[in-house]
Model the fold of this input.
Amino acid sequence: MNLAQLLAAAARRLPQAPAIALGMRTVATYGALAARVACLAAGMRSRFGLAPGDRVALVMENCPQYYEVMFACWHAGLAAVPINAKLHPKETAYIVGNSGTKLCFATPELAGGIAGCEVIDVTSPTYARLEARPAAPAEVRPDDLAWLFYTSGTTGVPKGAMLTHRNLLFASQTYYADIDRLAPGDSILHAAPLSHGSGLYGLPHFAAGALNVIPESGGFKPEEIFGLIAAHGGVSLFAAPTMIVRLLASPAAGSADLRNLKTITYGGAPMYVADAQRAIDLFGSRLYQLFGQGESPMTITGLPQAEHAARRHLETCGYARTGVEVRVADENDLDLSPGEVGEILTRSDCVMAGYWENPQATAQTLRGGWLHTGDLGSLDEAGYLTIRDRSKDMIISGGSNIYPREIEEVLLRHPAVLECSVVGRPHVEWGEEVVAFVVRSGDVSAGELDALCLEHIARFKRPRDYRFVDALPKNSYGKVLKTELRRLLTPP
Done:
């Protein structure tokens, strides 16, 4: 089934229902959105000669056009390539090149920095006129590529997780099964990037004829979020734990009108139990925690609202989602007993088809038919999963994955950097922040290294602190002991 049918079916039932709002203002009904999507899809195919399966990049801040382009890609039988708007132009260029993207849609602040393909500013007259005679949604197979999501790897080179129409439909159905039942009159507030989980959580809401609300700021401002919750009906929200912490700290929290709030789904990074308790104090039983990753988007385990209401199992990330299998295995992929720590493995119709043009990484990650998450955890007797550690050295800051080697590669470009090692340091608001330990072979300042990072990687990845040391701690094999470096950053 083509995912574009979710929108088309809702538009047939509810043509006058509001589909997208910008802040308080409805900007598209279901009938108007479906008509625009069908014409835009035809224009994309006819004007640019795109064939089924071709890739189209979305490099946008949150805006109403995001869903127009996304559904138009699927309507035309094309694959969408969502690219984080915060990435450095060089990182964006790598994804465009590696994916073989032929056409890119971008918001105006980002359009000028994209190379390697045709770029259309979604606020331009060209975009407004990009229409042709509409046709029915393209015929696609369930396992055809729908969403090519690039997730960083420990090598520092992003890998494209190939998510199919089947994968995203399964994720949408498990939303209904595990998180919430939706109906016309409900809404979802997109305060997190549409290029990630929030964008995919729009799908079950579109299928139900609910309203997708995009803040006018295009991002996350706690006071604005509380105002939109009060203004719209049956509000759901996806948030990283850091976003919830910011909501709790907002002066508006004490007087917020939460009567219209249905559900806050949170994930993307660990939530400290103390923060979860504070969130329950404010939001009550409306919280649902999920564990997933780009290779199995938003859908591995979950901790339901009832568990939050009872304040049970808050140290865990819940149990396997409906239709999902979860195991904890040793280095030989043999199951471990309850309480034993090993790698978390999962299998379901949500697991990616593989990595784009990377058969070696695909074979390693999907060996035996199971997704090897790279995360370490343990299962208890009842099947509740506790994450004991994350992918080997990954840093999670503000809900975004940051891989140290990518930063280390940049720092080592400076001729005065002899060695370096990057680790995460606990941060009250962001979860972790990046710290770089540097061994110098000549004169170099923190400011010079910061400028070097800003030239090559996204701002949010750069180190917040540089520690210049005489040597890095290593084991007998010469491997840097990052545990020792982290210990240096931990207060006694």
Remarks:
- The mean pLDDT is 92.
- The chain has two domains: 4-379, 398-489.
- Residues 139 and 171 are 21 Å apart (CA to CA).
